[in-house]
Amino acid sequence: MKNLSKFLLVAACVTALAFSAGAFLKVNATSAEAPVSGQPVDLTYAAEKALPSVVHIKYVQNSKVKTVEVQEDPFGGFFSDPFGFFGNPGGGSQRRQVQTPKREATGSGVIISVDGYIVTNNHVVEGADELTVTLNDNREFSARIVGNDKTTDLALIKIDGKNLPAITIANSDDVKVGEWVLAVGNPLGLNNTVTAGIISAKARTLGANGVESFIQTDAAINAGNSGGALVNTRGELVGINAMLTSPTGSNIGYGFAIPTTIMNKVVDDIKTYGTVQRAMIGISGQDVKNYVDVQKEQGKEVDLGTMEGIYVGEVVENGAAEDAGIKKGDVIVAIDGQNVTKFGELQGVVAKKRPGDKVNITYLRDKRKHTATITLKNEQGNTKVVKNADLDVLGGNFREITKQQKEQLNISYGLEVTKVNNGALKEAGINRGFIIQKINDEPIKTIDQLQKAVKTASTSKTPVLYIEGIYPTGKKSYFAVPLSD
User: Which of 86, 122, 212, 383 could pair with 356 as two cysteines, CB 3.0-4.6 Å apart?
Assistant: First the structure.
């Protein structure tokens, strides 16, 4: 479970994800009418309905051998100086292999389909070598990661099963502050735990993820609850529990869940495109009240014509907002006809869009109201679908270097290019025999690391591989390899 000790001011480019509304199940639960005085809320139906859909996830990262650099000790022997405090006192260094410890952790997940798709947090599964899912009835399954998204802290995993107890998904936009909810998960090693509380706030931003519009709840959320379900009184999913705020690391009253509107968009994009199609409005800014308060602290008087909305602090060059005429100092007060009073609300609305979608913005400039239609762009500054590139885009074959190559070239790792076909490598001038050692400053020791580097770069703002390496002659070379047109 992520732990955030205090709220941070969010000033990031608004990006997007998008949605799919879930179905509603009519049951004998709390009605929307005002409750009778003294009438308790019965949450037993919600707990019974949700518990079978929430799973326990065991994370394992196996022990690995890593090569580290150790400096020569001037008094004899070698010592590790990872921070470089001592420079190079002995004038020499040595590479040594160390064994990293095996890591294990646990979290929660929610079954969203009868054929075994499960949603959880990215931080629950990222970097795992093994994932074991245990159902409420104690059946165990091995799971694989279908896709993950660090920006929203969501991941989609899959187990091989049939007729699994999938949860009913509700539209999180419909939840109200003060509404009763349950948090279902596996906190602190206590499996199948249910806690109750209310919706404390909506559209919270904490500065933990790139895209945030959290549901805040006072239902107890602790370590191990990550990836579990936040459900309404009908047992329908309204959010994926993600983090808590606490100076101690345990619950003191407030937890935060990712709304299903964001979750559904991430899941749909991963299934359809292999990666999230994130739209960007192309601004950075902050809540008007926060901006005004900062100006007052500096002895400045500011009158923007409103105390609610988003103050535009920066407009991204050639971004969607600039194309539509938005300028620094404007105040966004509505999007698609919906009033926005804080940054999280703006992110929540844009989070239902994809690059190429249009949004109508209402903003104030010099206290006068204006409107603009903005065509949202992706992180690469266009409206195209962004897809994960595979190794095929490079047009080459690769293998890990041999012990003999390591000794001859005095290197400890690398991937040799054994064949060059038509593709990015050939266009960049990389020939057969070249040994790739680093891509975008990250060491490349295995085919899996090469694949990850290509995938990460292909969906980034600048889809380019900066490759460092060495030829069999000992000549070092550097190449920039674009991954898009």
Answer: 383
